[in-house]
Amino acid sequence: MLPAPCFRASKVVCDSLSSSTSPASAPGPSSSSRSTLFHWAQLVRLPNVFTVLADVSAAFLLVAHGPTPLPRFLAVVIAGVALYWAGMILNDVFDVVQDKAQRSTRPLAAGAIPISQAKFAGWLLLGLGVAIGAASGYLPGGDSYPVTWFPAAISVLLAIMIVAYDGPLKKTPLAPMAMGGCRVLSFLLGASPLFALTIGQPPFPQYVVGIAMAFGVYIMGLTTMARREAVGGPSHNLPMGLIVTVLGCVMLAFAPQLARGANMGWTVSTRDIFPLMMGTIAFPVVVRAIRAVRTPTPMNIQMAIRVGILSVIPLAAAYAYLGAGSGWALAIFALVVPSMILGTRLRVT
What we know:
It is built from 15 helices and no strands. By secondary structure, it is mainly alpha-helical.
């Protein structure tokens, strides 16, 4: 039996096809437009885009203590979204033949979106993401933030990693690592407009790299578990994914301590309060993952992945709180609402 979101997508396709054969019940232009928008929203995994808005924004807010310089903040967030949507579209472009045989309800496999349009949109968004990301380092930054080419470098690396995952790496054991690498680069992209090359210094501070790696490990664990989401059943991927996910949670809790006592101007102690916050957020993720390992049905695995992915938002909100205070933390956390609402109608995984 198909998961509910898949069933609904299938029903939309079937209803559309059946109505097209009956002139008396042919949908009007507005109905057709809504159907098209639904399929594009499904193709780009619309509920997930809020996790990218969250982690890219959180990286910037953590370092800058606010959305200043605003032009760079807006540009890098838009670049992150464009690159993410490109990855989602190209993922299904690369998989269209397999999806026609195994997952025929997906928008491209069902013919709801022409493959030519998806290819054009995917590669266009990839190029736009790189261009806007690169431009973010050259927008006005005041005396505190000089011109920097770091966003250009990170944008290019992220685009390469996206294509590598969608194409040659997806069906290999390296796939979870590649997906985690995409999330590492996504977080670094958010921080990149705030750093410029200094001779004798690394490109990013240790704590920024540590947090990015933590998000990457967390996503790598979820991706490892997700390799069994369609069929379920016992597999070494499930306990291995659980272990890696927990490791990512621990890293997220303690990575800010890599700042090593420097006066970062953060809102709470990174030695006690912040780890407790992160543990509270991560607890439901771990519980769901354990349940999926103990009872590996497709529904349990998919729910664990869904909760894990959407929890990126509150995890990122905690970092926004650490760097920029409660106002911006609440703004990031509020992204949970549209993500969950859309997640009831659209696939997350």
